[in-house]
């Protein structure tokens, strides 16, 4: 409650392996949160600092933000896709985080809180009102697989080197089935711990709905792709489905007021 009294708008930045995703939410007193701004920028771009500054100032967003920080696929605790042995992922040292978020800070921003993706998944499940859920969040080279039951989150992180952007339909199809073959054993392990959990997927992975078709075939189980338009300003219903799917974690944190 106190967080919402500090400001009417809350900004979250999700720092993935190759991109920044920003989502800002606003809630009026006694009302549901709504999305008021969103943008995605390529990490490492020469104009990143200025792009972030212009986005924040043009949308009249606060200088402070919560950060959802993704590990890299070679970080400690990230297991190879298909591996049954998982470590624990933790936030890196403050120095490493400062280096990664420098474009945001130099653009006038301030990081108020830092979360790992599975912590944001807990917010997403709570926001959806689900009692039990198995959520797969996909990025280009890392996935977060989180099982949430009664507010308790158990998570594993999986990394791979397959490229979903190879040219040619046959190449993309092969990549999807290779990815599914390695991913399904981990999903089955998760369902073994929570057989009645709702299964959902989201994340900034190209054409995620199509990429999940082989997974659904293998599991023979309903999988919800979180591509329904977020509660936002007019025109959000027309947004790119990949953008909507990719904004889910940042939205959950921003809508919850951190």
Would you kindly provide a written description of the structure presented here, covering whatever features stand out?
With 258 residues, the chain is an alpha/beta fold. It has a single domain, classed as 2-Layer Sandwich (Nucleotidyltransferase, domain 5), CATH 3.30.420. 35% of the residues lie in helices and 27% in strands. The protein has nine helices and eleven strands. The protein has a six-stranded mixed sheet, with helices on both faces. α5 crosses α9 (248-255) and α6 crosses α7 (208-219).
Question: What is the CATH superfamily?
Answer: eRF1 domain 2
As for the number of domains, it is 1
- What Rg is obtained from the alpha carbons, in whole angstroms? 18 Å
- C-alpha termini separation: 10 Å
Q: What is the H/E order?
A: HEEEHEEHHEHEEEHEHEHH
Q: Describe the largest sheet.
A: 6 strands, mixed
Give the uncertain stretches in residue-range form.
1-6
How much is the average pLDDT? Answer: 87
User: With helices defined by DSSP (H or I, 4 residues minimum), what is the helix count?
Assistant: 9
Explain the layout of strands and helices.
Elements: H1 2-6, E1 9-15, E2 19-26, E3 34-42, H2 48-58, E4 64-69, E5 78-80, H3 94-100, H4 102-106, E6 110-115, H5 117-128, E7 132-138, E8 142-149, E9 152-159, H6 169-193, E10 198-202, H7 208-219, E11 224-225, H8 241-246, H9 248-255
Parallel strand pairs: 1-4, 4-6, 5-9, 7-10, 10-11
Antiparallel strand pairs: 1-2, 2-3, 7-8, 8-9
